Amino acid sequence: MESPKSKYYLTAKKFWRTVVDIEKTADTSELQQQIEFHKRLLNIFQAGNFYYLVFNMYTGEVEIISEECENLIGYKPEELSLPFLMERIHPDDKAYFLNFEYKVVEFFKSLPYEKVKSYKVQYDFRFKRKDGHYIRILHQAIQIDYDENNFYRTLSLHTDISHIKQEGKPCFSLIGLDDEPSFFNIQLDQAFTKSYDMFTKREREILKCIVEGKMSKKIADELCVSLHTINTHRKNILAKAGVKTPVDLIAKAIKEGWL
Description:
Blueprint: H1 7-17, H2 28-42, E1 50-56, E2 61-65, H3 69-73, H4 82-87, H5 94-110, E3 119-128, E4 134-146, E5 151-160, E6 172-176, H6 201-211, H7 216-223, H8 227-241, H9 246-255
Helix pairs in contact: 1-5, 6-8, 7-8
């Protein structure tokens, strides 16, 4: 489905084109392998229904979108284009989206080549489904096709978190993987400030499992530790987060961009 290219889309496309100056044709089978590998990095929790898409930085368009989009937003993949998707972002959230994307481009342009693979983009916005109802989408993205001079493609995961975050302004974070520092809840009028985690590496692993809905016994089995150890970590995580229940923990983790 075609959609007029709004000023928001055209402005965002200018940002994206600053990180790529040549078009690169992708090998379909190789790209699919990249998608399957990186989906495991992005899908760190099952907080709701989701779909994924591959975005081409040079053309400013979506190249691949998974069929799950119909369950989530009501549209079939062949109905969608990036301008069409952007037009359905809540009017009050469009400026946030544009500023987040500007920050993303600014950040990745400043990163050393070897660290590009170690960062995930995360922010949320409200999106209008085909039935006219708004849901809140958690957007997660990682670079999957790039070289020392250009960024070609990103893989994004869109998850419905409406049941977790019903209100509040969009939140933007850059999550460090492989022990890289993260930048949580970045304010649009501030420079990047490293956020050193309140959680230990093991606590972060357990936090991800909690948000996935896993019980303590399953977490203990997966991490090869005792049930007592997991329960102790869970108590410490709740205390550090300043919440009393797992439900409150999940909501705060998403709101603060800890995942």
